[in-house]
Specification:
The chain is rod-shaped, with a radius of gyration of 34 Å. It is mainly α and about 150 residues long. The protein contains three helices and no strands. α1 runs antiparallel to α3 and α2 packs antiparallel against α3.
Length: about 150
């Protein structure tokens, strides 16, 4: 019984560690989601077409300045996104150890039966039915209102 108690204690500690690690993962995802910048679109070909379509040289200069500002915003958002991913990766690094659960101890002689453990009780019948109204007995003797005893109603 001591062996079972020790295993239950170890399994409980492993489950607690798994929960803590899962929470660290969730926190890392939430932080990344909340700090990820919105994408800033940049289309070089469209910017060149827009600048080239200006008929007034001053309009071309204004459009070029706007395109430059859009490009810089695009690069800044990209850089910030890379930083967020790096932070996310570092946060996951601290939560990378998940516990390994050990096998439960062998009980009652290791033959897979429950003989000698707590006496009788409800078990599983060959046909798999041991619920209300029956014990799974092949002859159905423990049907509704039946006793389940040999020769019983």
């Amino acid at each position: 019984m001591t062996e079972i108690g020790n295993w239950v204690g170890t399994a409980g500690q492993s489950a607690q560690l798994a929960g803590s690690q899962t929470q660290l993962h969730a926190d890392a995802v939430e932080t990344a989601r909340d700090t990820m910048p919105d994408p800033v679109p940049w289309d070089r070909a469209a910017a060149i077409r827009d600048i080239a379509s200006a008929t007034n040289p001053l309009d071309a200069m204004v459009r070029a300045a706007e395109a430059q500002a859009q490009y810089m915003a695009h690069r800044e958002a990209h850089q910030r996104a890379a930083e967020v991913v790096g932070t996310y990766d570092a946060n996951l690094g601290g939560a990378s150890v998940m516990p390994a659960f050990s096998r439960p101890p062998t009980m009652a002689g290791g033959d897979g039966t429950t003989s000698g453990i707590g006496g009788g009780g409800v078990g599983f019948a060959p046909n798999g039915f041991a619920g209300p109204g029956g014990s799974g007995a092949p002859d159905g003797s423990a049907g509704a209102g039946g006793s389940g005893l040999p020769g019983g109603p």
